[in-house]
Design brief:
There is one protein chain. With 112 residues, the chain is mostly beta strands. It has one helix and seven strands. β5 and β6 form a beta hairpin. It is globular and about 45 Å long. It starts with a helix and ends with a strand. The model has no long low-confidence stretch (mean pLDDT 86).
C-alpha cells in the first residue's frame, strides 16, 4: 500500500452525493441529491480564501479528503459533492492515489 494512502488517519465519515432527478410533489422530475456512498476518510484542512464577490466578502474553506478506492467511488467527479461536518463540500478535483489504492478529493465549502 502506498505511503500516500497511509498518511493521515481515516477517522472521519463522509457521504458522497450525486445529482439526480427525483419526482416532486406533482410527479415532475426535479433536481435532487442521492447518497452514493458513505466512507471513512482523512480530512486535511488547507488555508482558507477570502474574496470580494457581488459586493460581499465570500470566504471558502478548502479541504482535502483521502479515501480508499472501491468500485462504489471509482467514478466520483466534480459533478458530485460531499456531506461532512454539517456542510456541503463542492468537489474541485479528484486524483487517484496509486493504482486503485485510494482517491484524493479536493473540495471547498462556504465558510460560516
Amino acid at each position: 500500500m502506498s505511503k500516500l494512502l497511509r498518511a493521515g488517519a481515516r477517522d472521519r465519515r463522509i457521504t458522497i452525493q450525486r445529482a439526480t432527478l427525483a419526482p416532486d410533489t406533482a410527479g415532475d422530475p426535479a433536481p435532487s441529491w442521492e447518497n452514493l456512498s458513505t466512507v471513512w476518510a482523512s480530512a486535511m484542512p488547507a488555508p482558507g480564501v477570502e474574496r470580494l464577490q457581488s459586493a460581499e466578502i465570500a470566504a471558502t474553506t478548502p479541504m482535502v479528503f483521502r479515501i480508499r478506492w472501491s468500485s462504489a467511488v471509482a467514478d466520483v467527479n466534480p459533478k458530485d459533492r460531499i456531506s461532512y461536518a454539517g456542510r456541503m463540500w463542492i468537489i474541485a478535483s479528484v486524483t487517484e492515489i496509486g493504482r486503485r489504492e485510494g482517491l484524493e478529493i479536493a473540495a471547498t465549502a462556504r465558510a460560516d
